[in-house]
Amino acid sequence: MFKVNDNYLKLPGSYLFSTIGKKVKAYKEANPDKEVISLGIGDVTQPLAPAIIDSLHKAVDEMAVKETFKGYAPDLGYEFLRSAIAKNDYAARGADIAIDEIFVSDGAKCDSGNIQEIFSVDNKIAVCDPVYPVYVDTNVMAGRTGTYDPNTELWSDVIYMPCKADNNFAPEIPKETPDIIYLCFPNNPTGATIKKDQLQEWVDYANKVGAVIIYDAAYEAYISEDDVPHTIYECDGAKTCAIELKSFSKNAGFTGTRLGYAVVPKDLKASDGTSLNALWARRHGTKFNGAPYIIQRAGEAVYSEEGKKQTAEQIAYYMNNAKIIKEGLAEAGFTVSGGVNAPYIWLKTIEGMSSWDFFDYLLENANIVGTPGSGFGPSGEGYFRLTAFGTYENTLEAVKRIKAL
Ligand code: MLT
Fold first, then answer.
1. Predicted pLDDT of residue 237
2. String of b and e for 61-92 (b: at least 16 CB within 10 Å)?
3. Residue nearest to atom 4 of ligand 1 (CA)
4. How far is the CA of 43 from the centre of ligand 1 (A)?
5. What is the pLDDT of residues 30-46, one digit of tens each?
6. Residues with beta carbon inside 6 Å of ligand 1?
7. In the chain, which residues have pLDDT < 50?
8. What is the pLDDT at residue 107?
9. pLDDT the model gives residue 44
10. Hey, which of 15, 16, 17 would you mutate to test ligand 1's pocket, going by the most ligand atoms within 8 Å of its Cβ?
11. pLDDT digits (tens, 9 = 90+) for 123-132
C-alpha cells in the first residue's frame, strides 16, 4: 500500500490564505446583505496596463499564424525577456547580472517554495518571524524543520529571527549559524525595509559563514526612499552568496497571468564547489516547460517606456491607498508601521485582542478582511496586516468604517 510523504502531515492547519478564504466565504454566506471589503491577501485590483494588454494581443495574434506560432517556450525563459530584465532591473542599478543567470518562471511563490529543493535536507534555515508562510511550509514538506511545538508555534530545527517594534522589524544576525537565510525586503508582512548598509552586513555575514541568502524582492517596485536597496546585488559580494527572487505580480498586476524570475549567479557555489546556477538550470529543465510565450511578451512590455510609465502610475495609486490607511488608522489611535516602501500596513491590534480575535472583530463589525499577524509567525501575534492593493474607493470606505468602530 502506498504511503504519503509524511512531512506533509506535520504541517499545522491549512495555508494561511486558504483559512482566511474559508472564513470569509462562510461569513458572506451567512450575511449576504453585507458589503465585505477585502484588504487581506495582497492581490491587485487595477487591470493590466494598456501597454501590457497591447503586447498580449499581439502575442496572441502571433500564435494564430503558422510562421509566428510558438510551441514550448525555452525552459529558462525567452532571451527578449531575460535581456530586458538584465538591463532594467540590474544594469540600470549598477548590478552586473548576465542573461544566463536569470531564470524566468511562473511566479515568485513557486520559486520561493521550490528553491529549497537544491539544498541538502541537513541545511538549517533561518527565517524572519513574522514571515511569508511559504518559506517555512516548503521546508517542512522537505523534512528540514524538525518537530513542531503547538504551544510556541515554532519548529525545533528552524532559526527564527524575531522582527518586532523594538528592532524596527529588522532581523538581527542569529546566534546559531544558519546555512540558508531567507530575507524579504520590502517585507511581507510588516512592510519594513532595511538600508543598504544593513543588507551589506547580511551579505558579508553570509560570505563569512558560507550561508546562502534567498532574497525575496517581490515588493521592490514600492521602494520610495533613496537609501533602500532595490536588489541585493547592489551589495558587494552578493553574487557569491545570494539568490534573488522577483515577481511581476505586485509591480505590474500579473497575479492572475503569472510571471516571475530567479537570479542565480554563476559565482554562487556550494561548499563542495557545485554551481547552484547549473543545479537550478537542471531542475528547470526537468520540472518546468517555460512560462507561456504570450505572458513573457506581456512581461517584456512592462519594461517598455509606456509600460514603465503606466505601471508606475499603478504603484502610485496603491501607495496613495497605503498613505490613506496609515494616516487614517493613526488618527483612529492605532499604532501603525509599513506603508512607505511597501504596500502593506502593519498595525497593532486593539489592546488585549489576539490577531485572530481582531480578524473576527473587524470582519463582523466593519465587514473588512485583513490578515492576522500571528498567521505569519508567533512574533506577529497582536499584529494585523492590511494591504493597499484595494481600490481607492474601498480603501476610503474601509478607513471610514474602522474610524467609526
Ligand atoms: C500575500 O498576501 O502575502 C501575498 O499576496 C501572497 C503571495 O504573493 O503569494
1. 98
2. eeeeeeeeeeeebebbbbeebbbbbbeebbee
3. 42
4. 7
5. 999 999 999 999 999 99
6. 41-43, 109, 132, 188
7. none
8. 96
9. 97
10. 17
11. 999 999 999 9
Residue 317 CA to ligand 1 center (angstroms) comes to 19
Residue nearest atom 6 of ligand 1, based on CA coordinates = 42
pLDDT given for residue 14 in this prediction: 85
CB 45 within 8 A of CB 390: yes
Give the closest residue (by CA) to ligand 1 atom 1: 42
Total count of residues recorded for the chain: 405
- Cα(184) to ligand 1 centroid in Å equals 12
Which pLDDT score, from 0 to 100, does residue 329 have? 97
Count other Cβ atoms within 10 Å, centred on residue 311: 23
Check if the beta carbon of residue 347 is closer than 8 Å to that of residue 384.
yes
Best probe residue, ligand 1, of 132, 249, 371, 385 (max atoms within 8 Å of C-beta): 132
Distance 312 CA to ligand 1 centre (A): 20
Cα of 178 vs centre of ligand 1, distance in Å, is 25
pLDDT confidence of residue 183 = 98
| Whole-number pLDDT of residue 13 | 83
